[in-house]
């Protein structure tokens, strides 16, 4: 999880919207290369390194195998990013903005919904059965671990509230009500049918009062890879008519391919 960021209502209404025009990053490859050529070169380099690691022809003092093993994760991320760019999804999303909380209530600024789930978002902590075992965090929808990790400050807050009230559980929840333009629906449907993504997730700005229904329009991202895969990542599918906070997240946390 990244460093905790606490936002005031003044931040939400003034400071973030200005970042929209300046923080969009577009994919870039050397002028002499196509996306396909850049992808092929990266994959060839990965295969070359894997062969070197397998052969392990190093003197003991070199630590050469370790050096090459450290190179592989970033190269695999780059290869996946280039592949997704070829399919029309060039923007990789850093999820650290999910850790942002409101100063007014210390609750999340954003929540995550599953495209095919109508039950909204909830986060609860429940005491484990074994004495002294602590609490278990339960998310709906069940999120990738990298997303759950961003909500750690909220999990700790709920655990503290449960303890303060001598309870065994505490929870927050919210639902979403927002319209989707036809062009955005077409883009999302195409992405959903492409089978490129394990899941399509919708990120929306949470209300200050979690008891009210959410309005506004979301960021839509696709998940590539599962929790047990080193190269799991998330790509922007579309952004439509976002609020100031959602625009900030879209612009501030999108990376170029290389």
Structure, described:
It is a single chain. Residues about 15-25 and about 210-215 have low confidence and may be disordered. This protein has about 260 residues and is of the alpha+beta class. The chain has 2 domains: about 5-25 and about 90-255, no CATH class; about 35-85. The protein is built from 7 helices and 11 strands. The strands form 4 sheets. Strands 4-8-9-10 form a 4-stranded antiparallel sheet. A 3-stranded antiparallel sheet has the order 6-5-7, with helices on one face. It starts with 5 loop residues before the first strand and ends with a strand. Helix 2 (about 35-55) packs antiparallel against helix 3.
Mean pLDDT: 79
First-last Cα distance: 23 Å
Strand content: 15-25%
Query: What is the H/E order?
Result: EHHHEEEEEHHEHEEEHE
**Class from helix and strand fractions:** alpha+beta
The overall strand count is 11
Q: What is the CA-atom radius of gyration, in angstroms?
A: 21 Å
Low-confidence stretches: 14-25, 211-215
Shape: globular
Query: What fraction, in percent, of the residue positions are helical?
Result: 25-40%
Number of domains: 2
Biggest sheet: strand arrangement: 4-8-9-10
- Biggest sheet features: 4 strands, antiparallel
User: Count the helices. How many?
Assistant: 7
Please give a quick description of this structure.
With 258 residues, this protein is α+β, with helices and mostly antiparallel strands. The chain contains seven helices and eleven strands.
Give the topology, please:
Blueprint: E1 6-7, H1 9-15, H2 35-55, H3 64-86, E2 92-93, E3 101-102, E4 110-114, E5 121-127, E6 135-140, H4 145-150, H5 152-164, E7 169-174, H6 182-193, E8 199-205, E9 219-224, E10 233-239, H7 244-252, E11 254-255
Parallel strand pairs: 1-3
Antiparallel strand pairs: 2-11, 4-8, 5-6, 5-7, 8-9, 9-10
Helix pairs in contact: 2-3
């Amino acid at each position: 999880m990244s460093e905790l960021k606490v936002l005031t209502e003044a931040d939400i209404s003034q400071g973030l919207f200005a970042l929209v025009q300046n923080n969009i990053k577009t994919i870039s490859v050397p002028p002499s290369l196509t996306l396909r050529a850049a992808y092929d070169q990266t994959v060839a380099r990965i295969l070359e390194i894997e062969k070197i690691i397998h052969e392990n022809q190093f003197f003991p003092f070199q630590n050469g195998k370790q050096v090459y093993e450290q190179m592989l994760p970033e190269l695999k991320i780059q290869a996946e990013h280039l592949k997704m760019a070829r399919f029309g999804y060039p923007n990789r999303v850093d999820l650290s903005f999910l850790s942002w909380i409101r100063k007014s209530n210390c609750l999340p600024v954003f929540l995550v919904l599953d495209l095919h789930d109508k039950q909204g978002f909830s986060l609860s902590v429940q005491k484990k059965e074994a004495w002294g075992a602590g609490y278990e965090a339960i998310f709906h929808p069940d999120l990738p671990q990298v997303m759950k990790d961003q909500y750690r400050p909220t999990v700790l807050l709920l655990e503290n509230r449960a303890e303060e009230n001598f309870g065994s559980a505490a929870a927050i929840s919210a639902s979403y009500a927002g319209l989707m333009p036809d062009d955005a629906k077409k883009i999302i449907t195409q992405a959903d049918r492409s089978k490129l993504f394990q899941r399509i997730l919708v990120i929306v700005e949470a209300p200050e009062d979690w008891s009210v229904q959410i309005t506004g329009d979301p960021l839509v991202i696709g998940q590539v890879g599962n929790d047990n895969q080193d190269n799991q990542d998330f790509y922007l599918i579309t952004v439509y008519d976002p609020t100031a906070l959602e625009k900030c997240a879209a612009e501030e946390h999108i990376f170029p391919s290389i």
